[in-house]
Amino acid sequence: MQKLRISIIGAGNVGYHLANALYKSGHSVLQIYSRNLQTAQNISENLHSEAINSLSLLNPSADLLILCVSDSAIPELVNQINFQPKLIVHTAGSVSIKALNKFENRGVFYPMQTFSKNVSLDFGNIPLCIEADSPENLSDLRLLAQSLSKAVYELSSEKRLQCHLAAVFANNFSNHMFAIAESLMLKNDIPFDILKPIIMETALKVQQVSPLQAQTGPASRNDTATLQKHQSLLDAPDLEKIYSFVSQSILNYKLGAMPEIDIAKNNE
Amino acid sequence: MQKLRISIIGAGNVGYHLANALYKSGHSVLQIYSRNLQTAQNISENLHSEAINSLSLLNPSADLLILCVSDSAIPELVNQINFQPKLIVHTAGSVSIKALNKFENRGVFYPMQTFSKNVSLDFGNIPLCIEADSPENLSDLRLLAQSLSKAVYELSSEKRLQCHLAAVFANNFSNHMFAIAESLMLKNDIPFDILKPIIMETALKVQQVSPLQAQTGPASRNDTATLQKHQSLLDAPDLEKIYSFVSQSILNYKLGAMPEIDIAKNNE
């Protein structure tokens, strides 16, 4: 594909990983903006890019401007960009494309992954959700996305928000279940290491099998004796509540009371 | 180590995987019991074992009898075994060693993993939690466990129950978060595949980093705008409750209000 000249606004985890992936795929990373110049330089120095800490230094000739900032920072940045970029996109799951209405050529480039600076990632497997204001811009974004990943999806702002909500359950909430498990283990002087293989296996299983079908455990079997034994061990009211609500929800799903959708349909 | 002659009672997922792992490690699988003879035969035929469907056929000369049955089935089985085995163990996380008090030589052999018959597992990485009524029996179980896995832990019945409860959060509850995510995706006609890489990454991250430190997302940042946007999308009261309680709990953990333990201590 055509190699693009791309500037990245924001040098956090998404900016870091995206800039590196773009560079590796042969695109030019023209400029990297951060309020803190050193933060931008930490990324730019390996990518032959220019680090900048003022939006007035943005080069308007870039083919694409990518906003890699937190959801809440987008309006202010939009306000401060006072030229018409060839194309500008944001990378936020829960922000509508409308946030960029000020610009003639706009889109969204949302990578569905959790990023940490010190954890390297194979971008080729990261689902990229794209949206644009016109078929031409969508086509350009699709080509760019395909140059980075084999998993490219076109999603409207409404669907992207639903997807972001689902990801909160799949990532943030499951991680919190791991955190609760860790706290219970450490409180009882048992190494958290004992749970690491079962955590891996839980994630591996749903790569192949629907999580609804993969569900096991006392709630799923409605094993009230074990449920009560567990409840009596939880001395924190917050954990008791989570234990009982999640257990009830597991049973509801098992009984088909929820969700109002046909999982089998998806596997046709 | 010494190769043992072992009989397995129960031909479910645990029995299947344990019998195969014992055989591969050079032990003899003497007999496999199931109420359904065919189920026992499905396992025994590859392991040069005898399949039986009556407890009266159990060979008392076995070095070890392993009960691989559901928690609730243990008392009835104990009742029906009318000889003194050289050593007998159960494999249940939430059942005390006292359930085997009728026997002179008893213990527990609890593999911390989720088993499915059609998913092959490397037993060498599965944490095995052992307990016994005497130092001699504990030593024998430790040698056996070490012949199967490099992760062997001695846990009392009380600690094992705590560990089992923690595993419910780490495995059953995280899987339910995946199931809720799946239901939200399918309800909105978005492929669940989009979430599979982030699910893998979530599990991978906590192999290295404490889940408390790995926590991200709107609840963790107390991003009330996004939290409200998400809440308004959830039309099922059960999911709303889970969303708000888990979000609140994430924030509590972040603020150190819970748990009352020092995570840093564990990483010393």
Order of secondary-structure elements of chain A: EHEHEEHEEEHEHHHHHH
The general outline of chain A is: elongated
Amino-to-carboxy terminus distance of chain A: 34 Å
Class inferred from helices and paired strands of chain A: alpha/beta
Count all strands of chain A and give the number: 8
Largest interface: A-B, 104 and 104 residues
Strand coverage percent of chain A: 5-15%
Walk me through what this model shows:
- 2 copies of one chain form a homodimer.
- In chain A, strand 4, helix 3 and strand 5 form a beta-alpha-beta unit.
- The C terminus of chain A is likely disordered.
- Helix content of chain A is 45%, strand content 13%.
- The first copy, chain A, has 268 residues and is α/β, with parallel strands linked by helices.
- Chain A has an 8-stranded mixed β-sheet with strand order 3-2-1-4-5-6-7-8, with helices on one face.
- Chain A has 10 helices and 8 strands.
- At the A-B interface, helix 5, helix 6, helix 7, helix 8 and helix 9 of A face helix 5, helix 6, helix 7, helix 8 and helix 9 of B.
List the main descriptive attributes of the protein structure presented here:
homodimer, 268 residues, alpha/beta, 8-stranded mixed β-sheet, 45% helix, disordered C terminus
Q: What is the topology?
A:
The structure is a homodimer of 268-residue chains.
Chain A: E1 5-9, H1 13-24, E2 28-33, H2 37-44, E3 50-52, E4 64-67, H3 74-80, E5 88-90, E6 106-111, E7 128-132, H4 135-148, E8 152-154, H5 157-187, H6 196-208, H7 211-214, H8 224-233, H9 237-254, H10 263-266
Parallel strand pairs in A: 1-2, 1-4, 2-3, 4-5, 5-6, 7-8
Antiparallel strand pairs in A: 6-7
